[in-house]
Amino acid sequence: MQKISFFSLALLGASLTATAQTTKIDVQKGQKYLVETSTKLTSSAEVMGQTMENNTDSKSTTRYEILATGQEGINLQSTVTKMAVTASAMGQDMSYDSDKTDNSGPLADMLSAMLNKANTLQLNDKGLITKQDQEGNSTQSALTNGAAVTVTTDLFIPALIGKELKTGDNFTDTFTIKKEKYDSRDSGTYTVKAIENGLATISYSGTQVVNAVMEQMGMEMNSYSNNTVKSDLYVDIKTGLVLLKSSTIESSTTIEAGGMSIPATGKTIINVKVSPEK
């Protein structure tokens, strides 16, 4: 009976080892990927007894090309090739569509300057950006007056790289960003829902605290946000690529400007799809 028990345990251990798979970044020079991102943001602020609503709906396509891989990391180039944005704020409607030739206004001036401008990046073995030509070259950064700081790409999630993933497992992660006018801290839990054919279905639930300084109409504004974040991910374990990501961010924000303290709430829905360029 003892021999049978040890034999059974050995088989069980071998089975568990076989089902656990370690995520790693595996991309090659010359590979190209298209990242399609849609973002819908709704927010409401109370200003001097009045409710001000802001809405933004954007879609963009970013092309990534792997330039080199090696011990120093991954060199790649990102280029925003397509963008469409509609926004309403303070009773004004604005829009921009890169497929059209009659764009005009401040939104068009800001976004058209980003289009088809190559940005060279270097990533470490976790997928974090260690060097780049242009900081804040993203739709999100542009629409938040530079308040958003990006230290990762949409291709990889550093918390998942190097992790041994197994169905049913969960693990916590804390991620901080500190820049001159931006400070954020994300803390949450990843749960592995399923693994099939080298593809992992993962959920994330966490909180985010953001302190940022923005500029609008020549005025400096301090923003303090407490957010809840929920995401569903579809990850290729063999390459580390996040093929699909759907996130919902609920935010509670206080904006201090001109001696006033303005409370605001918001909801952001982001969907990202990564696919090889054909």
Count of separate DSSP helical elements: 3
Could you tell me how far the N terminus lies from the C terminus, measured between alpha carbons in angstroms?
59 Å
What structural category characterises the helix and strand content?
mainly beta
Order of helices and strands: HEEEEEHEEHEEEEEEE
Helix % is: 10-25%
Please state the overall shape, judged from the principal axes of the Cα atoms. Answer: globular
Give the total of beta strands: 14
Outline the low-pLDDT stretches: 6-18
Q: Roughly how many Å is the radius of gyration?
A: 21 Å
What amount of the residues lies in strands? over 45%
Mean pLDDT score: 87
Overall description:
The model is unreliable at about 5-20 (pLDDT under 50). The chain is about 10% helix and about 60% strand. The protein has helices at about 1-20, 105-110, 140-145; strands spanning about 20, 30-45, 50-70, 75-90, 90-95, 120-125, 130, 165, 170-180, 180-195, 200-215, 220-235, 240-255, 260-275. It is globular and about 55 Å long. A hairpin with a 2-residue loop joins β11 (about 200-215) and β12. By secondary structure, it is mostly beta strands. The N and C termini lie far apart (about 60 Å). Strands 2, 3, 4, 5, 6, 7, 9, 10, 11, 12, 13 and 14 form a twelve-stranded antiparallel beta sheet that branches. The protein contains three helices and 14 strands.
